[in-house]
Structures are given as C-alpha cells and as structure tokens.
Protein 1
Amino acid sequence: MTNYAPLASLLRPESLKDFFGQEHLVGKDKPLRILIENRQLFSMIFWGPPGVGKTTLARIIAHESGAEIYELSAVSAGKDDIRKIIANKSPLIKKILFLDEIHRFNKAQQDFLLPYVETGELTLIGATTENPSFEIISPLLSRCRIFTLKELDEKDLNKIIDVSIKKLSTKVDKKSRDWLVNMANGDARQLITIMDNAFTLYGKINIDSLTQALQNSFIRFDKKGEEYYNVISAFIKSMRASNIDAALYYLARMVDAGQDPLYIARRMVVFASEDIGIANSSAILVANAVFRLVKRSGLLSVKKTSLTALFTCANLPKIAVLMMPI
C-alpha cells in the first residue's frame, strides 16, 4: 500500500498523442498544438472546470519544449516560493512556473509575478476554474494568453474508460460504462478515480461495485464559483424551455449540494414575474406562496402521489410544489 499510486496519476498523458479532449486547442492547426510542435513558449492561463487536462497540458508543454517546470499551488504558495525558483539560475534552460488555482493569489502576489513574466525570466502557466477576467489583475492578464478548456464529452470519456480498463486488465459492460460517463460530469479525474476505487475494493467494475465504492454521489457545485451560476442558470433555462425533468434535476442538484432554499424560491419568483408574466397570472401567485412557505417553514419533501392534485398551471407550479412544506 505504501507504493500505491492513484490510477489517475499512472494514466496521465506525457504527449499529445495520448491526450484526449480539447480539440479546439490541440487539434490539427490549433494554437496549443502549433505551440508544442514549434517548441514555442509564452505565458498563458488555462481556464476550465476540474479534470479536463490543465495540469497535463502544462507538463506536456514543458516536456516538449525542454523547459524546467516548477509546480506550485496558489493555495499554499507565496512570494518566497517564487523567489527560490528565480534564484535557481539556469540560463540555458527555460523556466515554467505552473501555478494551480492562480485565482487564489491575492493582488500583491500577482503583482510580484509581473516583472518576471514581463522579462521572460519566468514563463507563467496559470490554471483556474474561475473566470480570469474577475480573479486575475489586468496587468498580468495583458501579459498572458487565455485558453478556455471545456468539459470532456462522451466520446473522450469513453476513450479514457478504454485506457483505464486496459491498465487494470478488466472489463466494463455498457450499463456500467454509461453510468460512469454520466457520473463523471465531463471530469476525467473523477471518472478514473471512481473506477480506481471500485476495482481496488472489489476487483471488478460493474454497477454494484461502482455504487458501493462511491456510496453517496458527489455533484459539482462550488459555492459562489462558476458551477454555482451554471447550475442556477440551467435551472431557469429548463423552466423557460418547459422541460420539467431538467428543471427538477437542477433543483435536486442544488438542494442536494446545500443551496439555500430561499435563494431558489426567490429566483422562481423572479422567473414567474419576468418570464411568465401575464401569460399565466397564477404563476406569480404560486411562486410567492412557495417563497413565503419556505421562509416560514423551511424546505420539506412532498410525496409524489400528492403532486397531481397540486399541479395547477403550466410548469412553474410543478417545480414549486416540490418546494412546498407539507
């Protein structure tokens, strides 16, 4: 057990031929592929959700360009760590500072990087899950190129499953494969970790071993981060599109993640007023009633058998019913 390495670490690609996803950046004639093939270096920021290849791409760039890479996390690193890297004189070898969670650096720490990035003494590759325009100071942004990484699609996730089962010398049936793709939520690291845990504990990968190893499903929903606004936006758009199932899914996702029920109820009142309006005058009444009930009594579940009698108008009341205390 002392020599155990996580499967995600063992499978991390070392070159672009083994890298899956981000075709808009690493596909033929795309910017990062050209950069790597021409061994070019410039400071950049990778912006994207977890598990889509930000760290891996930084390492591939360093490896292919013959540069020395220093990896720091902005959560724990400070100015002294950067000073040590600068003090390590190696004029013939380019230095790449890969700074994970760069948005955690405060303004003074980001200012400290400026002269080294400006002169090229350090090539900065920052990684962030937050919008760089809001979290990174303008002078540093102007010296870096921003590349947006996307969640991995079903095709890429299936390729990763194929590589994983080959490494584990096991098999995965279609039902388990579909479950993995859905649970991964576009995150390669999450996908591999679930498989690794199931195989380590049970020696096989099927629905039973996956659910037992996982126990409680975990859903990405970072407090006040990008995903926070993505989910509430998806909830509103689902109601706007009259897609009840999708709206219920995003509602459940928020509640399960600990979102304040009053916040959800308040957004429903806004939706009833701005999006439905006079098209259904009872919608605002139902939304307001839900808001008052949630504020007064809290969020309680409602039995499915009682829903039909309570559905009174279009889709908003159907969503609202699930928020009504019994």
Protein 2
Amino acid sequence: MDKSRVAELVGRFGEKRILVIGDLMLDEFLWGKVSRISPEAPVPVVEIVKEEFFPGGAANVARNLAEFTKNASLMGATGVCRHSEILQQLLTSEGVGTAAIQFHPCYRTIVKTRVIARQQHVVRIDRETKTRLKPAHAATALAQLEELLPSLDAVIVEDYGKGVLEQAFTDEISRLVWHFGKVLAVDPNPQNPLTWRHATVIKPNRSEAFASAGVPFSDGITNPTEDADLLRVGKLLMEKWDMENLLITLGELGVLLFRKGEPPYHAPTRAREVFDVSGAGDTVISLFTLALTAGASPQEAAEIANHASGVVVGKLGTAIVTPAELIASFGD
C-alpha cells in the first residue's frame, strides 16, 4: 500500500466520530526489579519502583481512537470508587468522551494488575465481578445511542465477556446502527456467544474464530490462504453472522480478511519484534474501523490495521500507535 495513500486516509481520521460500547476496565502496571527469591516460597521478590494506569477493555479501544480523532466516545457501566475515578480522569485527559458512561455503586470496577520486572511479565491479578447491565441502565444507554447516532460515523462493540453485552441489548444496538446506516464493528467473545446482525466487520482472533464456529482448534500454517481449517472457519462464520467483512487476527501471521464474493486476503505481520501483545486486538479493530469510515477499501483497512498492530506489539504495556508511527511503518 502506498505511503501517500496511507497519509491521505490518516488525514481524514480526525473528523470521524466513533462510539465504543462494551466492558470497561482499568489496567494497572506495577514495574519493579528482582534481586532475590522469597525465603517464604520459591518466588521472586519484586521491589516496585513505578506504578502506571491505563484505560483497559473497551476503554482501550477508545484510547486507540483518541490518538487519531478527538471525536471518540465511550459507552458502558462501571462502579463508584477510586479506580473508576482514575479511569474517568485518564479518559478525559486523552480526549475521550465519557458522557455515555454510567457510574453506579451496583457495579464493580474491573481492574487488571500486571507486575513486570526486568521486562518480564511476572504475574497478573484480576479484580472483577461479572455483572449484567440493569434493565433501566440498558434502556438509558439505548436512548443515548439513538440520540448520538445521527452524528456518528461508526459504532464499535467490544465484548470482553464481563456482563455488559447481552443478546437483547446488542440486538437493539445492531438495529439502531443499521437503521441510521452507520458502520458497525464488533470484537466478539466466544465465552459470551451472541448472534450478530447487520455488522460491517467482525474481528475475532484465531482461537475465538474457531470457538465461535464450533470447530476444534488447530495450529496455523505459514500461508493462511492455504490453511484448510481456517478457510472452513471463515466460511462458516460468514454464513453464521451474515456480515460484510470478517477480519481474523493471526498473531505472528498477520490478519486474514474474508469478504462476500471475494477470495480471502492475507496481510502478513509487520512486527519487527514482539514485546507485549496486550491490547493488539483493540488496535486492529480501532484502525480498521477508522480506515473504513475514511474511505479505505476493506483490503486497505486491513493493511492499515495490521501495520498499526505491528507497531503496538513492539512496545511494553497496553500501548497505542501514533499517526506518525503508523505512516512511517509503510516506508520500510
């Protein structure tokens, strides 16, 4: 893909208005050093030297978008506590709209804490309670969505399987987005098997795609376009979800794009080094959606999303890609 074409598309990203709906989280990173083993158990003693917080889950998708457009906003529900305050402050500081987030004490703020020492991920600690969205809160969210949609270019639904997204709620999301003729991008979770309709693109990773298709998992081969199991899964999901585009992320093998009436398109990985895959899928769906709304073809959008992911996995932590980094990645 020509670098000037990428720059042209990225130049249009800033005017796009995108709403992200899904499970909100707060990512905490504890950076430390290890100099000894605990006398109490054969585990390292980590001396913490730095603490960082980042938006996680659906909030990380919005954070990725905010690097390219200041018209990114977020819809979801979270608790009323110190961690929810930190999350809101982070989002506000990065220019993400938070007016559609509902803060209620009946929800627990999801926090994922990662301890990292000597550039190695030592342990992750999850604090979460899966909680269904209250009917009254779902109704409020849908009313807000209907009000916002005329001014939006796209809606991204990010499912981390934590309870916010249920079938009746997502059916209404799909119906409303389709009614207003907007782009609908979905990042599904096979542990929360939902039926999707009217999606512009659905983006599972390989294991999620196999699970969603009900096919036993198999490892990939070097050329995904000759991977019989993967091609079968793609065909099954295109029929099951009846979508325009299916984008399957394949880790070190890049991405594979399925489209109606077209042969699968493979974009090989652009990563030079892989330090941390945290949030790479969030980057893919963010940039694919932005590119589509900016006028890119699905094939061009897949290339842009794949390049963006290649930049992100070369960073530690829940990282994002900048416009300059994305454009520069096409100059290699």
Protein 3
Amino acid sequence: MTRLFRPFATLLFALAAIAATGHAAHAQLTPQQKQEIHQHYDRATRAYDLGKYPEAIDEYQKVYEIDGDPVMLYNIAQAYRLNEQPQDAIHFYRRYLQRAPEARNRDDVERKITAQEKVIEDKRKAAAAVQPPPPAPPVVKAPPKPVTPPPPVEPVTPPPPVVTAPVAPPPEPPSTTRRIIGWSMIGAGVAADVVAIIEGIRAKNRGDQLTQMSTSGTTPPFNPNIQSEGKTANIIAIVCGIAGTAVAVAGAVVLITNGSSSSSSSDTPPESGSTVSFTPWLGPGLAGGGVGLRF
C-alpha cells in the first residue's frame, strides 16, 4: 500500500507545488507542450509503479526539460534512491532544494540526503573490509655469483698393455680308439709271447729226449719224429716271440704317443735314432736255440 501510495502522493505534491509557484509560467506553455508534459508524466508514473526506475527517470527529465518544474527533480531523486544509486539521488535532492528553497518537505529531503550518505559510507566500509591486502613488495634477488670453472684435468696416460706369453693348451686326452688299438696290440703281443714260451719249452723237452736216447743203450739213438717236432716248436717259438714282442712294443708306443702326436708334430721335430731291433739267438740249452730281444 505504501509503495502504491507514493506516486499519488508525489503527484499531489507536484500539483500543489505547481499551484503554489503560480500559474503564470504554466499559462505560457502551448497546448502541444502541455499535451507532451501530460504524456511523459503518465509514462513516468507507470514506469515508477512497475519499478522501471531508469525509464521513469528518463520521462521525468523530459517533463523537466519542457516546463522546468522543480518537482520533477525531486521525482528523479526518488527514482535514483529506489534504484540504489545513492550518489545520483543526493545530487538531485540537493538540486531540488536549490530550485525550491521554500519547499514544505525540506526537512524530509534533508533526512533522505543524510540516509543516502550513510548508505555510501557503509558500502565504502564493506568494500574496504573485503578488499585484499596490498601485495607484498617484490623480493629483489641478488645477482647470481659467477661460477668459477673447475681447473682443467690433465689427461691420464694409460699404462702400457701387459703382454702375456701365450699359454700352451692342455694336452689333449688320449683318443679312445687309439687306446683300444694300443691295448689290443699289447694283448696280442703278450699272447704271442706266451705261445713262444710254450713252444720253446716243448722244443727243449724234445731236445732233452733226443739227448737221453743218445746216451742210453736201450733205445735207438735217433728218432726223426722227435727231432722234427723239436725243430717245428723251435721255429714257432722264434716267430711268435719276435712277432709278439714287436706287436706289444708297437701297442705301447701307440699308448705313449696318443694325444700328443699332433702337437709334437707341429711344435718339435721328431727325434731320430730311436729304433727297435730284434735279434734271435740260439742257446746251447735248447735244441735249436732260443729267442732274445734287444733295443
């Protein structure tokens, strides 16, 4: 009710002020100007009632431009106050009092001016309270100290390379095949020697029989069969002894030289003068002799 009553009170006050100042100035307006004033004033009143204070301010200003009524200054100040523009409201309140120093509502206008000044002061304090503190002065950093380069490092001469004598590879293990062959040859040689010993004993026995027969008078002094058997046994003994000894020695040589023949042939020349010779001999104790081995 109060807000709706304000335009009517303002209108009544304006009309009273116009009547008080005299009808002479108003009578000088043309009918067209009076029509414009009426139209602008109606528009301002409707905008004021709807809370469109910037439009009401514009229409009040147009009315004031036509007839110069000070009441329009008051209405403009009121619209600024309700639109929360206290600085402009104070300005037009004071202009109104200047143009109408004998106004009946002077005390009320001065109270409104004081209230608007307080609004401005409260806004200033609130803004100061939320205003962030001033930035700290920039910190001036000291210039960086010059970096002294490290002293040059003298090149280190590497030690001379150590020349090591080549290490001879370990001797190769004996070949399995050569070992088999060597032991086989030794076995065959030993077997042949055993046969030679047996045949030698047999030849000796035949010789002893012939000797006994020649010394005794009961038997014939000569038996060709016994002599033939003795010669055959003697020949077998000689041949087996020579062959068996040769084969056994050859097998031993194969075992001894196994695994080192390749290295010895490439590194050192073969030794000369190492020969094996076999000399059969006949002993007086055997009919037909025996066999001997000599290196």
Protein 4
Amino acid sequence: MSRILFVDPIPESLDGLRRSLRAHRGTWDMHYSPSYQDARDHMAAETPADILVAAVENRNEESISFLAAMKEQHPKTVRFSVSSTSDDLLSLQSSSIAHQCLEKPYDTHELEILITRAFTLRERLQGCALRERLHDLDALPSLPALYRRIIEAINSTDTSIGEIAELLQQDISLSAKLLQIVNSAAIGLRNQVTDVAQAATLLGLEKISAMVLAVEVFSMVGQKALPPGFSLDALWSHSIRVAEGARTIAVDACDDRKAIDATFTAGLLHDVGLILLAANFPDELTESLRRAKTDETTLWEAERETFAATHAELGGYLLELWGLPDPIVEAITYHDIPSALPEEEYPSAVPKHGFTPLTGVHVANYFSADERQTAYGCVEGELDVLYMERTGYSAKLEDWLVLCHDT
C-alpha cells in the first residue's frame, strides 16, 4: 500500500484533507502531521513515506528547512510543497527541494491526480532497461556541483542576482558558454549581452539556472569519443530552439509562470539521455542512428530495438535521480510519444484540463524535426496525432507554428 504523509500546522487544512481523501483509505496508507517535528519523528520511526505533502510558507524558515532535510535524509520520498502565496523567491526555493509545487487553495482532486501521476511516472522510470547498465558502469553523473551551489544560493533569502552572477563568473568557460547561448538568435534578445549579471537580470534566475544545468550536462561528455557524425553543437542548437519554441507555446497556452519556466527547462534538457548514450554507448548509438536512417524509422523506435529503451526514458531517469520537478521529468520521459502516458489512470490530468510542459516540448520538438534530420540524418520523432486530438490542442498547431517561427 502506498504511504503518504501530509504535514500542515493549520488544523483546518489537515481536517479538510482527511475528509476529502477518505475514499482512498483502502489504497493509500495516510498519516497527518500537525507539526514539522511530528513529521520528522514519523519519518524516522516508521518506514519512510513514499510521498510527502508539506505546507511551506515564505516567512516560516522551519517549513523550508524541514523539506530540505527530508530531501537529504529521504531522497527516495517524492516531495510536494503546498504554499498559500505566489511569492517568486518561495517558488524558486520550493522548486529546488520539491518534485511538485501547489498553491492554496487547490482542488483536492488535483492533488489525487498528481499523486497518482507521481507513482505512475516512477514505475515507468524504474523499468528503464538501461539504468542498471549505467549503474554498473558507474556512469550516471551526480547533480552538477555548480548548479547545486546556485540552487543553495537561491534558497538563501538574502541572496541577490549579483551574488548568483559572481558564482557563475568563477567558471570562465561556463560563463563564456552562457553568454554565447544568451546572445544566440534563438534567445531573441535585442541587444548584445556582455556579462553574466546582465544576462541573469534580463532572463531571470529560473532561466539562467536551467541554462547552467544544460551547460553542465553537455560538458559531462568530456573527451569521450562520440559516434561518427554526432555533433554536440548541433544538439545544442536543437535544444535551445526546442526550449524557446516550447516556452513560446506555453506562454500562448497558459498564464502559469511555473508551467512556463518548467516548459523552457524541459525543452532545454529533453535530449539529455542522448548525451548519456553518446558518451557511454557510442557503438550502439551509431547502430541506432544507422538503423533509423536505413529503415526510415524514428530514432526512438531504433533505440528501442537496440537498447530496449529510449534516450527520453534514460534522460527522465537521470533527472528524476537529480530531484528535478515531476512536470519536467514527465515532459522529458514522454516527449517523443506522449500518448504513452497512461491517461486512463488519471483522465482528468490531460492537458485539456490545464497545459503541461509535455505538450509544449513535444510540439516544439516536432517543429524542429528538420534541423535534427539535417544534423543526424534521421527523425527523432513524429507528431503524436492521437495525443494532440485527445488533449484538444490539434486546432492550435498552425497558430503555434507561426508563433515559433516568429520568435
């Protein structure tokens, strides 16, 4: 039975949850803690919860420190944060220590959907056929140290953008790469940006931190031999284009800043699994690319034949290990074939009931198919018509194509 721990110092909130979730008592083992100390004691004394749903507030340091401690002490527990404010700093802090972030008031049915979704996503990722091979090779990288330091700085309430920029500027090669990206045509800034502090101010910490993580991920290839014709520069160009296209789609589809930022991050990192394959299994990836070209099939189908897994699943597994938010992990895991998302288990969660980053990344990736084919001679994926029809977004495709091309 799935174990879920709810923590909220407001008694009325806990009572409301008890009443609303009564129907799940036969399928979920639920415990309700009225304080963070009670929750700490419960996690220490009992088998740790599979999912933790904790209230956090921007003027309550105990709530943030509790969730951060749970991340450190119980990394396998899926963490949800629930706040009663849309404060930007709190949102950044929460997103760095929680897999899901909710704001009060929220529909309890929405919480049920997200909990079910979290369990389903992890079942999919645990079944990734390549994860054991990478563990055996000791080839799964840790969360990049600089990115971790930036997130820790963001979590410090008195940190300024200037101080974040100082952290970035300590790494000269990373700073240079960031400025190259920021000044690329894909980002679309009107004036040349000459320093990292200016870039952070113009783009915001969420976007900059996503770019830092992407730069760090691309650099983990090091001096390893890559498959013939495999170009990291081409993959960079493709990733930036997908990120900006996905963000453009998200801005048109919703007014949720968290969803928009998550969509950009997911677009930038959607091919992280391809980098892992290129760095660790170059011969087998070469075979996948050859098979995709000669059989005129998609890359993910060829990967399935070669690896019994896809680069999307592998990328999702890595980012789930790193603790990135579930909407980002989900978008990366399913970006080639979103209809594989088992919506029958939570039908109200499909994007027609609210935009998700998965839609933006899938469509933007499809719009960028030509450049991927030019770079590698094969198509990564095709438009998932079933998914688009099921979610009700088919009618938006032409509008989104125009918007992405105008960006």
